[in-house]
Amino acid sequence: MPLISTGDITHGARTDSTGVGAFNVVQIEHAQAIASGAEAARLPVILQVSENTARYHRGLEPIGLASLAVARAARVPVAVHLDHAESADLVREAVRLGFTSVMFDGSALPYADNVAATREITAYCHSHGVWVEAELGEIGGKDGAHAPGVRTDPDEARAFVEATAVDALAVAVGSSHAMLTRDAVLDFALISRLRDAVGVPLVLHGSSGVGDAGLTAAVGAGMTKVNISTHLNKLFTGAVRAYLDTHAEAADPRAYLGPARDAVSAEVARLLGVLAGPGR
Asked: Which of 163, 167, 183 is nearest to 175 (CA)?
């Protein structure tokens, strides 16, 4: 199946008032698991490669090209997205490699600097047909948009989207990155206000900390793209640990990475169903 644009996936989800899952790739097993989970669910999905993951692989190209290959081989629509890029050079490399979207994270910058940098990135990406997500940080850029207690102001969000021409906006509504428990409390009224304030899809980062009921309610309130990473990494690591605990002699990584891949695939399929809602 030809590579699909993240914009096409999110537009369809926003039109249908459903959510789309965006799951982070750490290594090729993650990409394979996410794609196979989407195939099992018969739903589209977004593979995300973060700047931190590119750094881990000593460059974007190895894991980026692998993710693109997995996406093209999938039997359902799969997009490949650059997540949390703070480097303009990395954004340009992702565009060159064939990523269909990027998330430029200028949230740590003062507001005016974030607007200027994001506007420049958006103009470049749009000239190459690439969809852009951005993040609006706390006023003053103190701790970014997903530090505990931070909330996005709807009026500021509207002004930011208009000033930068971005295609989607990551907003702060109560979730935090890298949560190991699924007990985050989201502000659903704020999500609805943000949906009404901006004319682009809203993105929920830190969704690993949100339980199934919260994910369903967030989508119902107006979230479209839902990012999940740590939750899947917990399952992946748990499956590896369980295998090694009972196979002390194991030496072939395929023996324990395979079950980990299967565990992630099953959870991706389940979560995509949660985000798509009943009847899908």
From this structure: 183
Q: Is 83 a catalytic residue?
A: yes
Q: Beta strand 45-50 with 101-104: parallel, antiparallel or unpaired?
A: unpaired
- Quickly state the pLDDT bin for 3 (edges 50, 70, 90): confident
Q: Are strands 131-135 and 78-85 parallel, antiparallel or unpaired?
A: unpaired
- pLDDT per position as a tens digit, 220-266: 999 999 999 989 999 999 999 999 999 999 999 999 999 999 999 99
Of 83, 105, 153, 167, the catalytic one is 83
User: pTM of the full predicted structure?
Assistant: 0.91
Placement of tokens 């949390």 in the chain: 84
Contacts of 162-166 with CB under 8 Å at 24 or more apart are 163/115, 163/119, 164/115, 164/118, 164/119, 164/122, 164/134, 165/119, 165/122, 165/123, 165/126, 166/118, 166/122, 166/132, 166/133, 166/134, 166/200
- Cα–Cα dist 168/101, whole Å: 10
d(CA 29, CA 232): 12
